[in-house]
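User: Run a structure prediction on this.
Assistant: Running it now.
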Amino acid sequence: MYAHCFFFEQNTDRILYSLLDYCAIEQHHSRLDDPHVFNKDATRSCNDKYLENTLGINKIALNILTWIMHQKAVESGKKVPPSYKSIQHMLNTGSLTSVFEYSAAYYFEANTQKSTTAD
């Protein structure tokens, strides 16, 4: 009976996290559809793993864009961060090196926070 309860709890946890992921995606859905940001509605799926891979990449990119928005707001001292469109425009018109620099800074900050909370 105990194993059955554990199995049930494990499944409900998975369902809960799936629903939370879905809600987080839908919360930012308009940004993903925006032709200036991700233009998600214009994509065509031909591969079985295309949607899974694109979703993963979009989640990573959205996290990085959100982090850059926060960094720009802190740098400027403004309470309202710049828009997703303006950050995407900045990255599209800037150098590829700057995109990697932002990505690396986000990665190291995120991992530093994880390691300090684990200690």
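The chain has a mean pLDDT of 77.
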